[in-house]
């Protein structure tokens, strides 16, 4: 083959390659128009508590929703819509790790969106995502741990009641509400809370990395911030809403199927029991007390 013939053949090959690439791009664009991106939105609303009752979530109730979201056909990512004042550190840890496990398995990015409140355990869940967006009015943060209770020693005396107890083990009845508090018991409790706080801090550092801009004293003192200040501190990555941000990322035609957490059949059966009905009063009180810490109104 002559030099000119080879040159002509090479040119034709290049043109064919470019045409093929242009056709491929066109087909991809058409497919996206016909089959818009899908980003399932998992609703994580409520106090985080073991054996979740009404107004609460736990690792079990959330797991099926997460599984559903990550297995959604055509999903390009999974979004977490979080409205929680926190609660159980262990349940928060379990949910956060489950999100990371499913994200790695399905190779999908995860985006977190803070609603009214994503504080304490709620922020723990948000950190499971690859990025966090909050509204300007969202209350975010509270990287801390708290424990509380009541003492009724004096009340028992006034009522003429005597508390009787038998225990094996010197520390079995630490911080009993029916006995005077001992300083050594308070020191023991502070130690546990301090260790738990360090686990929380390590998780935030692992997930946020060098995006954190505030000092440790500012970021990890259990304070909360609104969206703009949280952005300045690197607590979140953007200020906006779930629809705005996902449309910006995945196009105006992105589909956002909402996936709510549901109780297991066992939880539903327990919820129908008389014992659960009695316990519901205490559950509502606990929920309101935790939410009240972050209410603006």
Give a summary of the structure in a few sentences.
By secondary structure, the chain is of the alpha/beta class. It contains eleven helices and ten strands.
SSE topology:
Layout (H helix, E strand, L loop, with lengths): L2 H32 L6 E5 L1 E2 L7 E2 L1 H12 L7 E7 L4 H18 L3 E10 L1 H6 L4 E4 L4 E3 L11 H6 L24 H26 L7 H4 L4 E2 L1 H6 L5 E2 L2 H9 L7 E3 L4 H7 L2 H19 L5
Parallel strand pairs: 1-4, 1-10, 2-3, 4-5, 5-6, 5-7, 6-9
Antiparallel strand pairs: 7-8
Helix pairs in contact: 2-3
Architecture overview:
The structure is a single chain. Helix 2 (59-70) runs parallel beside helix 3. By secondary structure, the chain is of the alpha/beta class. The radius of gyration is 26 Å and the shape is elongated. It is 49% helix and 13% strand. Strands 1, 4, 5, 6, 7, 8, 9 and 10 form an eight-stranded mixed β-sheet that branches. A two-stranded parallel sheet has the order 2-3. The protein has eleven helices and ten strands.
- Beta-strand portion reads 5-15%
Describe the largest sheet: 8 strands, mixed
What order do the SSEs take from the amino end to the carboxyl end, as H and E?
HEEEHEHEHEEHHHEHEHEHH
- C-alpha Rg, in Å? 26 Å
Q: What is the number of helical segments per DSSP (H or I, 4+ residues)?
A: 11
Q: How much helix, percentage-wise, in residues?
A: 40-55%
Number of strands: 10
Distance between the termini: 85 Å
Unreliable stretches: 264-282
What spatial form do the alpha-carbon principal axes imply?
Answer: elongated
Global mean pLDDT: 82
